[in-house]
Amino acid sequence: MGPERADEFAHAIRLLCRGHQVVAVNPRETRASRAFENAGGTFIRARIEQLARSCGRFELVLENYPYPSGRNYVPPRPFALARLSRLASCGQWILFTESIRFATLLKAVVEHDDDLREKIRVSLVPIPADAAPTSHYPQVDRRLRLVFQRVW
Hints:
Elements: H1 6-17, E1 23-25, H2 31-38, E2 42-44, E3 58-64, H3 76-84, E4 87-97, H4 100-111, H5 114-119, E5 120-128, E6 142-150
Parallel strand pairs: 1-2, 3-4
Antiparallel strand pairs: 4-6, 5-6
Helix pairs in contact: 1-2, 3-4
């Protein structure tokens, strides 16, 4: 979700080459998104919140450093639900961030909802910066990885 940089699209192309069906969703079309489409990927110019239900469910939703702010601000619960509702059975949403506040708020969406807690397992793990995807944000020693997994 939301690939922007050429390296994110290169990762998506590697997944295509391994035989996976890959869909990239971003409201902005770029040279990298066009190269991804030319390689056989599906690019949808939209925000995940705008995707039609006919797009189906995903086994993996991967998101690097989202920061919904300004006119694109989405509160944590709708932000999380838009992604969690797209997960296939046993699917995962993996998100990398540098913001402990954002990560904690997203994790709390599941932890404080009885219905979601039955369906979704969530883990929040600090990882070394060099073990996370590249970031253009100011250099920090660690990043955070959130993994949400639908259990059925």
